[in-house]
Amino acid sequence: MSSAATRVTGQDHLWSVTEHLEDILTTVRPLEPIELQLLDAQGCVLVEDVTVPVSLPPFDNSSMDGYAVRVADVAGASEEFPAVLTVVGDVAAGPTEPPQVGPGEAARIMTGAPLPPGAETVVPVEWTDGGLGEGPVSRMRAHSAAPEGASGQVQVHRPAPARAHVRAKGSDVKAGDRALEAGTILGPPQIALLAAIGRGTVRVRPRPRVVVLSTGSELVQPDEELGNGQIYDSNSFALTAAARDAGAIAYRVGAVADDAETLRATIEDQLIRADLLVTTGGVSVGAYDVVKEALESVGDEDEPGSGIEFRKLAMQPGKPQGFGSIGPDHTPLLALPGNPVSSYVSFELFVRPAIRTLMGVDDIHRPTTRAALNTDKALTSPPGRRQYLRGRYANGEVTPVGGAGSHLIAALARADALIVVPETVESVEPGTEVEVVLLG
Q1: What phi and psi values does residue 419 have, to the nearest 5 degrees?
Q2: How far apart are CA 291 and CA 330, in angstroms?
Q3: Which terminal residue of the chain, N or C, has fewer Cβ atoms less than 10 Å from its own Cβ?
Q4: Closest C-alpha to 19, from 30, 29, 8
Q5: Which residues contact 349 (CB under 8 A, 6 or more apart)?
Q6: Could you give the CA distance from residue 427 to residue 418 in angstroms, rounded to a whole number?
Q7: Cβ contacts of residue 367 below 8 Å, gap of 6+?
Q8: How far is CA 335 from CA 113, 281, 318, 321, 323, in A?
Q9: Which of the four pLDDT bands, split at 50, 70 and 90, describes residue 304?
Q10: pLDDT over threshold 80, residue 303
Q11: What DSSP line would sit under 396-425, residue for residue?
Q12: Worst-scoring range by mean pLDDT, 40-49, 91-100, 290-299?
């Protein structure tokens, strides 16, 4: 971690959003790679290319339930003049010794089973009488109920070209191919591919462990009864969910009362399971801003690089912020404001990129676009501050949601974008093209 002592700022320095983010991103480093079992690696980032050790599929196999035959034996077949072939056995998926298919012969074959020697193509069972001597059938009878289906004769009602309904060896990936590149985030399809080529473990950067703490004696947990002057704790739920959405393993800690010693002890207890700590509330200039009281002096003289610095940013909402490290491992800590919308906007701008950096992904930022402002009156912005307004984006337009107020949680729930008003702009007219951060 970079040291708070090396940041030449002063208490009155007004940080830009870019400066604060750059300080975070030059401090936070990707987590060290580890080897994980496949399912434990879901959501993690590969740190090395994965090469295919064996072709997939590893042998020619049938993509249909039907009959493996020679092309010449079914040429010209029709319902009026079916090709009549002798069934020489079954070819089921799994270890098997498939029968040889000679002229005038067919082997009943199941989906995924290897193409038997001598066979050149597969006709689906629906193109045959299923060995019943009648018209076309819709399926095979179970082998346990009708074992005679593996012998006798079958009538084929349609011709098939060479290698019809045959999945060729290596048609998915070939031995020696690169299956996945370093930097890939492992989702269900990637996990499936790794399993299909025989990889049981993979080397990845682990998902970061993020601990979220909200502060405030006024906070009550959902489902509890509200008392006088109390509100429900929404921030810890919002930020824990947001951290998980960003790719982290996130832990929520119940609201901590406005007591500096209690907060310090709680944070110390959480360090053992945290790659990143996020607090919300108590970072402004009030007499009860407990996070500042508890953490302003936590830097250890014997631990260079530790310490939390509290700042003012040229942005709205989210002016008060804190950042630094804590504990013997210099665990990064981001202290966010307590206003729910300020807290969430701050998470999107600063915490989410930090999580993505810890993960080791290349693209740490939300996608942005340009959109026409869909409103009936100009938007005003405080001089010298970058403003982030909630909005709905569709068809190249963005519509503000909930006005300019920063306390509107319901408006935040309806928004899928942030409208960015630069610090150099004090008013934005309807129809003006603006930058939009896409949250969905």
Answers
A1: -90, 125
A2: 18
A3: C
A4: 8
A5: 17, 21, 315, 318, 388
A6: 17
A7: 437, 438
A8: 59, 8, 11, 6, 6
A9: low
A10: no
A11: TEEEE-STT-S--HHHHHH--EEEEE-TT-
A12: 290-299
Q: 338: Cβ–Cβ under 8 A, 6 or more apart, which residues?
A: 214, 215, 216, 235, 280, 281, 282, 283, 284
Query: For helices 352-359 and 17-27, what crossing angle results, to 10°?
Result: 30
Instruction: Say how far apart CA 271 and CA 258 lie, in whole Å.
Output: 20
Largest Cα–Cα distance in the chain?
95
Q: Pick the closest to residue 391 from 409, 367, 418 (CA basis).
A: 418
The count of C-alpha atoms lying within 13 angstroms of the C-alpha of 333, restricted to the half-sphere facing its C-beta, is 33
Of all residues in the chain, the percent with pLDDT exceeding 90 is 75
Cα 99 to Cα 352: distance, rounded to the nearest angstrom: 59
pLDDT in tens, 429-439: 999 999 999 99
Amino acid in the structure at residue 227: G
Helix (H, G, I), strand (E, B) or coil at 279: strand
Query: Which amino acid type is present at position 114?
Result: P
Strands (E), 262-396: 276-280, 307-313, 315-316, 320-326, 331-336, 368-373, 379-380, 386-394
pLDDT tens-digit map of 79-122:
999 999 999 999 999 888 899 999 999 999 999 999 999 999 99
- In a 10 Å sphere around its CB, with 0-12 CB exposed, 13-18 middle and 19+ buried, how is residue 372 labelled? middle
Strand 379-380 relative to strand 427-428: parallel, antiparallel, unpaired?
Answer: antiparallel
What integer is the mean pLDDT of 173-193?
96
DSSP per residue, 32-55: PPEEEETGGGTT-EESS-EE-SS-
